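User: Quick sanity check before I run a bigger batch. Here is a single chain. Can you write out its predicted 3D structure?
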Amino acid sequence: MPDSRRVARRTGLRNAVAAAVALPLLTTAQASATRRPRPRLDVMTYNLRFASDVEPNSWAVRRPVMRELLRRASPHVIGTQEGLYHQLLDIEADLAPHYAWIGTGRGGGSSDEAAAIYYDTRRLAPLEHDTFWLSDTPRVIASNTWGAAFPRIATWVRFRDLRDGGRQFHVLNTHLDHASQYARVRAASLVAERIARFDPSLPRLVTGDFNAPAHRNEAYDILLGAGLTDTWDTAASRSRLYATFHGYAPLTPDGDRIDWILAGPGTEVARASVDTFSLHGQFPSDHLPVRASLTLG
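Assistant: Done. Predicted structure follows.
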C-alpha cells in the first residue's frame, strides 16, 4: 500500500508549484487590464499672418475663419508665429475660456510680432518660460547680428501635463528669417544649443515657421542632428501634403512643408496633418497649420 502521507506531500507540492506559477501570470494579467493608455497630446504650429487692414485678407475678414478653425481643432498646444498683441488677444477671446498664452513681441514688448504659445489650461500648467533672440547676443532685446530681415525670437515653456500624471515637458516655438539662409542656419544652431540645456529627462517639442523646406535645408539638418525627429515622417498616418505657405493662392499638393513640429526621441505620433480648412473660400492665414497627435517619449 502506498504511504498516504508521502502521496499527500507530493500532491501538496504539485499544487504549491502550480499556484506559484499561476500567481505571477494572474498579477501580470491584472496589471495589464488596469494599465491605462497615456493620453495623447494634440499640437499645432501655425503662422497666423499678422493682423492688417489690407483687403481682401484683412484680419477683420480672417478672424471669424480663424476662430472656427481653432475651435474645431481644439489643440492642447499651439505654437504661433507673426501674431500681433491685439491679434493674440482676439484669438484668446475667440477660443474657449480655458486657453491662455505666453509670449512677447520680437521688439521686446507688445508692439511687434510674437512667437506666442497657447495652451489648454484644463490639460497643461506652465512652470517656467523664457524668450531669447536669435542672434549672437540672445539676451539683448531686439538684437539682430546675422543679417536677418527682422529681429527673430524663440519662446519656450516648461509645462506640467495635468492629465498625464504631472509629467513635465518643454515646448520651444520660433520663426526663422525668410530672407537670409545664413541667419536661418545660425538660428537653428542656437535653438539646438538651447534645447540641449533643457533637462534631458524631459520630453521636448519644437514648433515653428522655419522658412525652409523639410529635408532640403541645412537648418532642418541641424535640428534633426540635435536629436529631434520630424513628426510628419514618424506619424503612423498622415493627411495629404500641401505646401504650408500658400499666400492665398490655390493650394499646392506635395509642396514644400516649411512649418514643422519636431519632437524628442521616443515620441509616438499617431497622426500628422496639414489642415486645409477655409470658409466660403477664405483662408484664416496665408499659411496652413500643421498638426500632430502624439504621445511624448
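DSSP finds six helices and 13 strands in the chain.

User: Great, the batch can go ahead then.
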